[in-house]
Fold this sequence. Notes:
By secondary structure, this protein is an alpha/beta fold. Helix content is 28%, strand content 15%.
Amino acid sequence: MNLSELDFVKNKRVAIVGSSGILLNTEFGQEIDDHDVVVRFNAAKTDGYEKHVGDRTDIRVMNGHTWAGTTNKDIFPEFDDKFTSKLRDTTLIIKGDYNDNQKKLGYQNTHPSNTIIILDVPFLLSCARVVKSKSVPTCGIITIILLSKLTDKLDCYGFNFYRDNWCDKHYWEKINEYDQGKHHDINTEAKFLNKLNDDKIVNLRY
Length: 206
């Protein structure tokens, strides 16, 4: 996969900001914004949460349904289906099943000031092999694998692997219960990330 559009990440200090409600117990905002590059996920918001998560976003990694604005509101009732159209001057890295309608809506929703990078299926499957997961990993783990090819200065915030109560899964929104194990091998991913932390490939900040 061609990573030339991510050359600006090479050898930079990168903050990868997860979505866990655990971040509301912290005040990492300024520390996060002091990084060279700040990465966020899906529809994670910063307005009103700056002292916890900062307010800069250089890269946003999104599932295909978030990008397209078709996220299931039975599970994510507060989802803003216009979210993508509001983004400006951001590198969008898209992970998804890439059905034609999803792609069409995603491109239609994306302002031309943004850069779009589509993660191809071979890369996603290679991430599953690296993690030794039975399914394609979450956006968070895929991002860590991807950016570790470009820099060894990765600080990770708010990675709690869904150990929060349902009301605290995302720091900015409420989520209705659903079967997370149907989509992701969470325990395997947690072990993988903890090993990266032990090996000093990433720095886990909670």
